[in-house]
Amino acid sequence: MYNQITSNKRRSLVLVTVFIAFVLALGWVIDRGYGSGAGTGGLIFAALISLIMALASFYQGDRLAIWSAGAQAISREENPYLYRQVENLCLAAGLPLPRIHLIKDPAIYAFATGRNPSHASVAVTTGALEKLTNEELEGVLAHELSHIKNYDIR
């Protein structure tokens, strides 16, 4: 399992590095074609843009995924059943409790997102809560929590 986690972290780093290199190259090419010709102005601009985008993606990407799914954060009082299911599975897996979100949708769907186990979220549709048995929902939630544990959520 630790090899998989290390591999996922390395792949995330490679992806961000390739993204930054691509944006830098694009800035350099644009500046060479339309700017001063030296390529430095576009390179500096592209470096700033890529840095801002990489940091925003790393620190705010989970919020964007939650927002785009139309998910709403829930508390223990709002949905004790779902909250208890996630809490019990986290206890068994040795994970911190992620933020729990509910998507009002009749489809059966769930996902996990975040940058690490301490900054993770799990979202579940109302359809999953209504149509799945306790065991089925537990399986779906365990699957999503395994993504968190293995750093597959970046």
Task: Kindly describe this structure.
The protein has 154 residues and is an alpha+beta fold. Helix content is 64%, strand content 12%. It contains five helices and four strands, in the order H-H-E-H-E-E-E-H-H. It has a four-stranded mixed sheet, sandwiched between helices. Helix 1 packs across helix 2 (40-68) and helix 3 (80-93) packs across helix 5 (134-149). The chain is elongated, with a radius of gyration of 20 Å.
Q: What characteristics describe this protein?
A:
single chain; alpha+beta; about 65% helix; elongated; 5 helices; about 150 residues; Zincin-like
CATH topology of the largest domain: Zincin-like
Distance between the termini: 17 Å
Mean pLDDT: 88
CATH-level-4 superfamily name of the largest domain: Metalloproteases ("zincins"), catalytic domain
Instruction: Assign the CATH class of the largest domain.
Output: Alpha Beta
Q: Name the CATH architecture of the largest domain.
A: 2-Layer Sandwich
Proportion in helices: 55-70%
Strand percentage lies at 5-15%
Rg estimate, integer Å: 20 Å
Enumerate how many helices there are, as a single number.
5
Q: Note the overall shape.
A: elongated
- Poorly predicted segments: none
Strand element count: 4
The major sheet is characterized as:
4 strands, mixed
Strands of the widest sheet, in order across it, are 1-2-4-3
Structurally, the number of domains stands at 2
What's the topology here?
Blueprint: H1 2-34, H2 40-68, E1 72-73, H3 80-93, E2 99-103, E3 110-114, E4 120-125, H4 126-131, H5 134-149
Parallel strand pairs: 2-4
Antiparallel strand pairs: 1-2, 3-4
